[in-house]
């Protein structure tokens, strides 16, 4: 976190109160139940307005892209997109676009090769983008990922809007991607996601907006999380334990999401006067126009460390995916990709022979953190058979 956000992270991490007004930043919320209450109160807090995500994304993507919408229109668009994210639809998409790469990852690690999991995650994310925008797999490479990251990397907590040059760059990147999606929508092939959207009754512009939202929200989060999860499992001795017995795998994935919080902060704009927290002096009054910074990464710190057995994550009801009407639409897709990658790593570890708990047959050989990125993560994380030096 510190490498990604050297200024904002220490500032937010120094907040000790459940809610506090920080001049120049906004009203910062660090407590899980207050944070959830803000997310659920759409009469007072909106994703549309000064300091909210609409300020960042509307100039780039237009005003109908889920993450800057509210109310009945937003609900209706989500309802129509829901069939894309059922377990069956997601399972089919992940098997088709990522199944072969999970098998390759497992085989390479099992054969004793050293593999950079960041590069793997980028390739996976690019394949997912390719499927979402309707690109053929053979033209997808991690250049796509880098182009998206050049857009999201411009976002800073201290800068609620992009500069004109950043907007122009972001628009060019998105126009390129949505150009493919437009062609896929027009061709109407239900094997592509834009074609399937057309089949579900979504218009051309709505479909392109949704594609833009998927690409922006669903790419970097996963690329950051997958290597961080594997590093966490490795560092805590859980890689070996889970390779031998997967009883606690779901809890380990949830604990990983709690501890790393890949989407560390959410933003809202206040649209009606109200209060966050209690009236007895602990809360903060808010006025229309106030920016609310929901520090999910702090709210998720309900317990120290990483504990798949105690599983404190269970009490948070997946707060790392948000709550209420904007709860992450892509969560089933994210979970399928997480299970696919971790499954491949654990299969490879298990196939490398019997071992003691905490002595994994695969180790992190090399790691470098990423700097100047929106979502904290690694730039390189090499997993392989030899001991770290
Ligand atoms: C580990 C991975 C991911 C995490 C931690 C994550 C987290 C989140 C969070 C916290 C929100 C709510 C933001 C808010 O209320 O302000 C959200 C919304 C969203 N996510 Fe994800 N996300 C992940 C992966 C994905 C993927 C793979 C997709 C691909 C489709 C996706 C699509 C979306 C969309 C479309 C929204 C906006 C929903 C709306 O506004 O109605 N996410 N995500």
Describe the protein in words.
This protein has 389 residues and is α+β, with helices and mostly antiparallel strands. It has one domain: Orthogonal Bundle (Cytochrome p450), CATH 1.10.630.10. Helices cover 50% and strands 11% of the residues. The strands form three sheets. It has a five-stranded mixed sheet with strand order 1-2-8-5-3. Helix 6 (117-133) crosses helix 7, helix 6 (117-133) runs antiparallel to helix 10 (204-218) and helix 6 (117-133) runs antiparallel to helix 11. The longest helix is centred in the first third of the chain and has 24 residues, at 87-110. The chain is globular, with a radius of gyration of 21 Å. The protein starts with 7 loop residues before the first helix and ends in a 5-residue tail after the last strand. 48% of the residues are buried. Protoporphyrin IX containing FE binds next to helix 10, helix 11 and helix 15. GO terms for molecular function: heme binding; iron ion binding; monooxygenase activity; oxidoreductase activity, acting on paired donors, with incorporation or reduction of molecular oxygen. Belongs to the cytochrome P450 family. InterPro entries: Cyt_P450_B (IPR002397), Cyt_P450_CS (IPR017972), Cyt_P450_sf (IPR036396). This is Cytochrome P450.
Shape: globular
CATH topology: the name is Cytochrome p450
The total tally of domains equals 1
Question: Biggest sheet, strands in spatial order?
Answer: 1-2-8-5-3
Instruction: Report strand %.
Output: 5-15%
> Are any ligands bound, and if so which?
protoporphyrin IX containing FE
| Secondary structure tally: strands | 10
Quick check: average pLDDT? Answer: 90
User: End-to-end distance, in Å?
Assistant: 24 Å
In helices, the fraction of residues equals: 40-55%
Residue windows where pLDDT falls under 50 for at least 5 positions:
354-358
Subunit organisation of the chains: single chain
- Assigned CATH superfamily: Cytochrome P450
How many helical stretches? 15
* CATH class membership: Mainly Alpha
In this structure, how is the largest beta sheet organized?
A: 5 strands, mixed
Radius of gyration: 21 Å
What is the H-and-E element order? HEEHEHHHEHHHHHHHHEEEEHHEE
CATH architecture: Orthogonal Bundle
Structural class: alpha+beta
